[in-house]
Design brief:
The protein is an alpha/beta fold. Helix content is 52%, strand content 14%.
Length: 201
């Protein structure tokens, strides 16, 4: 019997997932939580074989929860099931000892196969995402360029960014221009789009 802990903040999805898994003769859902900071206490108490975690959890994101869980309950395997499937999030997850990583649009049969694979000590990684992670380019921006681009991405104008970072407007424009050139972007917003798609901001 594979004992499962589910961490998903949307109650309807959490309930549907629990219902789906409970239909399997060899799977038993032993815990359902809606927050990332509830994962480790529940896992310590119930010792599940596999934790199925979303990334976008309140209290603590799923990847941070995975890192804590792997240290606190090392026998519990971890499978991320998320809508945030980017090469960057996959790399973060693998660094946190996650052994499974799937998108939420996966077929139920694939999810069940992945849970069984992870429970037996194998890896179950979305193949398209794995290829994208291998092909992803190295992040070329300097820390300050990245910081300025991150602020531009949330709608800050040059003057606001300059005030926040204690820089001159000209320096902020230079950082933004440099980021555009390094990313091969058409303009500032295109640079933001590229950086977001790569998971850098």
């Amino acid at each position: 019997m594979i004992r499962i802990l589910i961490a998903e903040d949307m109650a309807i999805l959490r309930g549907a997932l629990a219902e789906l898994l409970s239909l399997e003769a060899d799977i038993k859902v032993v815990a359902e939580v809606g927050r990332g900071d509830e994962v480790v206490p529940k896992a310590r108490a119930l010792q599940p074989d596999v934790a199925v975690l979303d990334i976008g959890l309140p209290g603590m994101d799923g990847i941070a929860a995975a890192a804590e869980l792997s240290a606190a309950v090392p026998d519990c395997r971890i499978l991320i099931l998320t809508g945030l499937g980017t090469p960057h999030t996959l790399r973060r997850a693998l660094a946190s000892q996650v052994t499974g990583f799937l998108r939420k649009d996966v077929a139920p049969s694939q999810l069940l196969a992945a849970i069984r694979a992870v429970a037996s000590g194998e890896r179950a990684i979305d193949s398209q995402l794995a290829v994208a992670a291998l092909e992803a380019t190295t992040q070329p921006l300097a820390p300050r360029e990245l910081e300025v681009l991150r602020l531009a991405a949330v709608g800050e104008d040059v003057a606001a960014i300059a005030r926040r970072l204690f820089l001159s407007r000209g320096t902020v424009r230079n950082y933004l221009s440099s980021a555009v050139v390094k990313l091969g972007a058409r303009n500032r917003m295109d640079a933001v789009r590229i950086a977001r798609e790569e998971g850098w901001i």
